[in-house]
Design goal:
Length: 453
């Protein structure tokens, strides 16, 4: 399987929180950076209990007897950029950029099912100078890094040919003296560290929805600083991403997303519009802060109205359901209207978006009906309430078994039908109906009175 799609997800993890709106170094939120997947050097981690110098992923791998695993460790190396004025007393400006790093190796069958494998790695430090337009230089410095990745497999008891696979990443970078402040320790950290694992001769078990036989083994897995999920967007089980951000199985980057905004906790549309609203001076400051921020500003400014509309929202593969749980053959909802010939017909146009005023013309809450247990239920029908299937409202206990009169058959934005009802024995029923004060229930929370009489 091509790793390209998985790398798109991994890149989003790699740069999550890299720089936040309004993308200026002077912004308060950009003065405390690198919050995701930070694996500190051992000296600083020992002094600060809120930090750690390792991350660990455990998951279940079932195999054919000849498994091997490709391990790809990815992280950012902090690169501290500063300006050095030619004249003494000049003001220095600093900003942390980042350089992508990747460590890749394969663990074969003998090591995987035997003693395990330890892979040491080192990343060189360095310094580059770039003359400024005026006097002085821009200096970029990187500290050397060292670490190891250990891979072990623990056989599971039982008839299944499976192991609990453990992948542990440790930062072994020695800093002398040990930094006292977090910002001073970051250049010796592995930032946004995550691991991609690809299995040959085996398949991984979902940590979110494991089969019955693997549930105990999955529960015994200990994940520290990362969460492994099945990462093949096509639904395969041969690749896993262990991410410092909790994801679902088979995550995807929305095709409507035009590029990284570095803040996945925000809504792309809102963040794009807010970025466009920055003043020219603020945009100039953002461009000067970081090359990635400059590219972001340029990309957002180049978007046209069609690009921005795509960010508003997308409905994928809408499948309105019938009240009996089955999808209607022609894609229409199970709301019916009785024709002049006395036959029920499908209503609603699946080609008309729910927000289009034309969608309202295809429904009639006062005359539409819905099939519940073989009975056509509409305005004036008597139903017995059976709340609780979908909700946990404490007030439901007072409604169970009571009789109500249907006032309207409605559709939610997903084309699921529900009922507006009024209690038949409510002394203020007429007043509530006049003011439209109804109770609302899904079709599986009521029973036709004809069916229970």
């Amino acid at each position: 399987m091509s790793l390209a799609a998985v790398r798109r997800i991994a890149d989003a993890v790699l740069y999550e929180g890299y720089i936040l709106y309004p993308y200026r170094a002077s912004a308060q939120k950009n003065r405390s950076r690198w919050q995701w997947g930070v694996v500190m050097g051992p000296g600083y981690a020992a002094a600060d209990p809120s930090e750690r110098d390792f991350t660990q992923a455990e998951m279940v791998l079932e195999h054919s007897g000849q498994p091997s695993v490709l391990i790809i460790l990815r992280f950012l190396q902090v690169q501290r950029r500063s300006t050095e004025a030619a004249e003494p007393g000049g003001q220095a400006q600093t900003w942390d950029e980042a350089v992508e790093r990747e460590i890749q190796f394969t663990v074969g069958r003998d090591a995987l099912l035997g003693p395990g494998h330890v892979h040491d790695f080192a990343v060189d430090g360095g310094e580059e100078r770039e003359p400024l337009a005026g006097d002085g230089d821009t200096v970029r410095r990187r500290e050397p890094l060292a670490g190891l990745v250990s891979v072990r497999a623990f056989p599971l008891e039982g008839p299944w040919q499976a192991v609990r696979l453990q992948v542990r990443v440790q930062n072994r970078t020695a800093a002398e003296p040990v930094p006292e402040r977090r910002e001073d320790a970051l250049p010796t950290a592995l930032v946004a560290a995550h691991v991609i694992m690809t299995a040959t001769g085996g398949e991984f078990i979902s940590m979110i929805d494991p089969p019955e036989w693997a549930k105990t083994a999955v529960a015994e897995c200990e994940n520290i600083g990362g969460w492994p999920v099945l990462a093949d967007p096509d639904g395969g089980r041969d690749i896993v991403l262990s991410s410092p951000i909790i994801l679902y199985d088979h995550p995807e980057v929305a095709p409507e997303s035009p590029g990284e905004l570095y803040d996945g906790l925000e809504i792309d549309e809102i963040l794009t519009l807010r970025t466009l609203a920055l003043s020219d001076d603020e945009k100039l400051q953002a461009r000067a802060t970081d090359p990635r921020a400059a590219a972001l500003i340029d990309r957002v400014e180049a978007m046209d109205a069609r690009d921005i509309v795509k960010l508003h929202g997308t409905v994928r593969s809408p499948r309105p359901v019938r009240s009996d749980g089955a999808a209607a053959a022609d894609g229409h909802t199970m709301i019916a209207r009785t024709s002049a010939a006395g036959e029920s017909e499908w209503i609603g146009d699946p080609d008309v978006p729910w927000w289009d005023p034309g969608a309202d013309a295809s429904v009639s809450p006062d005359t539409d009906t819905v099939n519940i247990g073989g009975h056509q239920i509409g305005r004036g029908s008597q139903v017995r309430l059976r709340p609780g299937n979908r909700r946990s409202d404490a007030q439901d206990m007072f409604l169970i078994g009571r009789i109500a009169e249907v006032q309207a058959v409605l559709l939610d934005v997903d084309d699921h039908p529900y009922l507006a009802v009024a209690l038949a024995d409510d002394p203020d029923q007429d007043l509530r109906i006049a003011h439209g004060r109804f109770l609302y229930f899904s079709v599986d929370e009521v029973e036709p009175c004809e069916a229970v009489s």
